[in-house]
Amino acid sequence: MLQPNETRELKCVLTDEEMKNYSMALARKQQDLAQAELEKKAAASYHKERMERLTSEINTVSRNVVNGYEFRQVECYWDYLWNDGVKRLYRTDTGEMVDSKPINEYERQQHLKLEEKEDGEEFEEAQQEEKTEQSASQEEQGQSEEQEGEPEEDPTMPEPTKQGRKRRSEARA
After folding, report:
1. Which end of the chain is more exposed for a tag (fewer CB within 10 A), N or C?
2. Which residues are registered as beta bridge partners of 90?
3. Do the strands 86-91 and 97-102 form a parallel or antiparallel pair, or are they unpaired?
4. From the centroid of its chain, how far is CA 16?
5. Distance CA 68, CA 84 (A)
């Protein structure tokens, strides 16, 4: 039997419209490819950074386990031994001494200023206490005079003052 028709793939010259459509499709495909390459690079960069971070964390934890310790921020305090000219740093959590250094000149000056200030404050406090005691003593004397009644007349006291005292003692009564 004879075949009347057959379909084959043959060369066909493109029309202007087909050329335009293929050109637009080609441009879109190139942009899509460029975008996919950027996304691949971003994903690769993200995964690379993530893997590096995990590797670093694994190394740190592994080192801590092997060594049996790690370094942390620990609160400490300085103890100044002024007579020895040394200061020592102690951990607050264990009390262990972790450092010792000579006291520098600046620290010595600050210490002297503090001592002078403390001495001055102690002197002022003593003066204040003395004043307070004097005031209390004067108040006690004033109250005992009030309780005794009218004060004694002083012949040398001017007359208006004597009258003022009389009025005050009358007002109390």
Report:
1. N
2. 77, 97
3. antiparallel
4. 74
5. 36
